[in-house]
Write a structure and sequence with these properties.
The protein has helices at about 5-15, 30-40, 45-50, 60-85, 90-100, 105-115, 120-135, 155-170, 175-185, 185-195, 205-230, 235-245, 245-260, 265-280. With about 300 residues, it is mainly α. The two termini are about 25 Å apart. Helix 4 packs across helix 9 (about 175-185) and helix 7 packs antiparallel against helix 14 (about 265-280). The chain has one domain. The protein has 14 helices and no strands.
Length: about 300
């Protein structure tokens, strides 16, 4: 199995747990509060990276750092909108699958700006992945647009741009450094959330703190493995649709733990997702993008 594919599958697993964890909170929190408090789950990853790869800090690439940091800002703002939509919706599966439309933005940008050209099997996988996302998304038959929070649409653009910038950052940084600066951008966003909202409460049960920490941790680990997939040569136009299928992991959890229902449409989406993974897993014998330098 190619390294980029292995890292992509790990991203699927981490991100499959990430969006459903807020549903387990014992009290309702706003998107700003979840984003701010879940930043605690990022701190152990940031500390580990800072202490473990001190040699890599000698190869400081300002361009890569800026790109990774800006990608993190887009990702953090996308999370604020995402959590806000989750907290205001009774149907988490609707928000999760709508947010999964973001690969459309990344694929278009990668092909237009990075000149990425997947081969025909991967292109078929991209089409199947986007088709699966469409089948899963709630804007199909019988869906009332007015019932969907505007916050549920914002992550599509934020995450789409962040995915492209993450790929670009690994051209000059190792995946570890790119991940560090991506996650570091969440700290000032959390500080901004604290300043703008004086209703933020730090008094929560141990269970809720564990869940909030898990939200940040699974998100951080998923981004780490995503950047590792990019650094291992995975194309943004291939890796992004593949990792965008994380709802295939999330939906069974929503059904088994939270009692949400999966209908015929969702089963079709799962079938298309499996076919997409098969198509996206193929790669040419010749090397693609060179791996990021390991300092």
């Amino acid at each position: 199995m190619p390294k980029w594919l292995l890292f992509s599958v790990l991203t699927l697993v981490f991100w499959g747990f990430w969006p459903v964890l807020p549903k387990a909170l014992t009290r309702e929190l706003s998107g700003y509060h979840i984003q701010t408090l879940s930043t605690a789950g990022l701190l152990p990853i940031l500390a580990f990276m800072l202490l473990s790869w001190r040699r890599q800090w000698r190869a400081f690439q300002l361009r890569g750092v800026v790109i990774a940091f800006v990608a993190g800002l887009f990702g953090a703002l996308g999370n604020v909108a995402y959590y806000e939509a989750l907290s205001s919706s009774q149907q988490a599966s609707t928000v999760i699958t709508l947010g999964a439309l973001y690969p459309v933005v990344t694929v278009v940008l990668a092909m237009a700006l990075l000149r990425e050209r997947p081969h025909f099997l991967q292109l078929a996988g991209i089409v199947l992945a986007l088709g699966a996302i469409y089948v899963f998304n709630p804007l199909g038959e019988g869906t009332d647009l007015q019932s969907v929070s505007v916050y549920a649409f914002l992550p599509i653009g934020f995450y789409g741009v962040a995915g492209l910038l993450q790929k670009v950052s690994t051209r000059t940084l190792s995946s570890e450094l790119a991940c560090f600066w991506f996650l570091a951008a969440f700290v000032p966003v959390a500080a901004w959330c604290i300043v703008r909202d004086d209703s933020l409460s730090w008094s929560h049960s141990a269970k809720d703190w564990a869940i909030l920490g898990g939200v940040g941790l699974t998100y951080a680990l998923g981004n780490w493995t995503l950047l590792a997939a990019f650094a291992a040569g995975g194309k943004a136009s291939v890796v992004t649709p593949l990792t965008g299928l994380y709802y295939v992991v999330a939906l069974p959890i929503l059904v088994g733990v939270f009692g949400e229902k999966i209908g015929t449409r969702e089963w079709w989406g799962i079938g298309l997702s499996v076919a997409a993974v098969v198509g996206l897993s193929f790669e040419r014998a010749s090397p693609g993008n060179p791996p990021a330098p390991q300092q």
